[in-house]
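dumping the sequnces here before i forget
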Amino acid sequence: MRTFKLYAALVGAGLRGEAQYRGNLLVMLVAGMAYQGIGLAFVWVVVDRFGAIGGWTLGEVFFLYALRLTAHGLWVVPFSQLNQLDLVVREGEFDRYLVRPLNPLVQVLTRRVGLMQAGDLVGGLLLLAYATTIVDVDWSPGAVGFLLLAVVGGALVEVAVQLGLSGLTFRLLSTRMLRIQVDSVFGTFGNYPLKIFPSVARFLFTIVLPMAFVAYFPASVLLDRTGELAVPSWFAYGSPLVGAALFTLAYLFWSRQTSHYTSSGH
Amino acid sequence: MSRPTPKAVLEAYGAIARVNAGSALAYRADYVVGILGLLVQVFLLRMVWEAVYADRGSVDGVDLSTTIAYATLATVQYWLSNPWNFSVIPQRVREGKIAIDLSRPVSFLGQVVAGQVGTTAALAPFALVAVPFTVLVGGAQPPPSVGAGLAYVVSLGLAYVITILLSSLVGLSTFWTLEVGGFFMIYRMVSQFLAGALVPLWFMPDWLRTVAEVLPFQAATYTPLAVYLGRLAGPDLAAALIVQAGWIVLLWLVLRLVWSRALHRVVVQGG
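..and the predicted 3d for all of it:
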């Protein structure tokens, strides 16, 4: 509870700082949307011209894309500062976080507010709101509930992978490029029905890099397409639980890794 | 002070290009990772095109292998000519080094162009290493004729000049607003799409294709690729090359105009 209060206070301070530059705030939001929007523009032009991809209609692909982007936005806004972790560790900034009476991870995350990342979340929510109206889904309370759980679960899957890799920074000192590449794999392949990829890639994106749990499996459930999955359908229904489990593991791993931190000495 | 001789000017630009190539090479580990990203992108494009073509032989008169060849070449070509730091100007202004640049006896725009050519030269070997792998992951085909191959070289040269002019023009916006990160991102994404770097113009809906055709970006990426694949030949080819040359003249004039305005807005930080 105390941690949460401090977190809110630190984020508030960051926001007030950024609000000093309102023009930039808007530009950064649009920039974040543009970065994610180019992939959407590609899918849209291609599927519009060809009619479908792997049997999925344009509306269904939009829905999948929206689910992925919203889950992505949901983790990347609060966790944007993981991007700077290499710097924090190498410059010895982490020293400060260890002596202050607050969880070091919370202190890393509240260094600055991720403005461009907020564009991902806003763009994702807008697209999701639109996509839910064009897909053929009966939005019963159960379906809406699963959608909400799926978005949170998807965010947890992605953040678990990123947090786990970040933990390695304390030993390797430099994991940023690796994390960016992994993130871009999620951001490119994760927006397509997994069935269009060869079976090796499908296996990798389910077991090694649990990308399928972010959006493809939950979208298959909601679009009533679990029949075409290469895995049993309870796999897809359990996606939100996978997110929660992976995040717990990743956090434990990160916490253990922090003990390997050695200050840069100054 | 007398004006420097043309030879001295060229030597100065050469030195600037070498310095920029050197600093670009300092990040060679990033390029190696960047090549991996390039391969991933090419692979994804191939999978997507294979999935949408399914059993169709050709769409709009273009078969699957031509489309994959386009996607592969476009990705490599775009990567080589549009590095993430596509303009050196923001860094020079932010660090106050613009003061030194302006006091040099050669034009600032010339220095910017030389710097960008240097960066491309440093990247080129990485692109050459990447080509066989991208062809393996994606696909390629030779140009349909020797003439198309030669015309491609000419068109690619013109396209590169257009890219440099556009990058410099966008870079000059730093003189109006120091915080250019967001603006550069928007420019990069919109221009990349309208350049045909992801989807060839022939698959775009009519209205979007019209928008792309009246803008200069397609002349920097799509045109040389369409020439290479033999989609532009005969009178169409001549027209496309003239359009490219026209953009070079126009963009050069705009760049001169914007630069003369920018010069009055120089802010030297920490100087």
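Chain A has one domain: 2-258.
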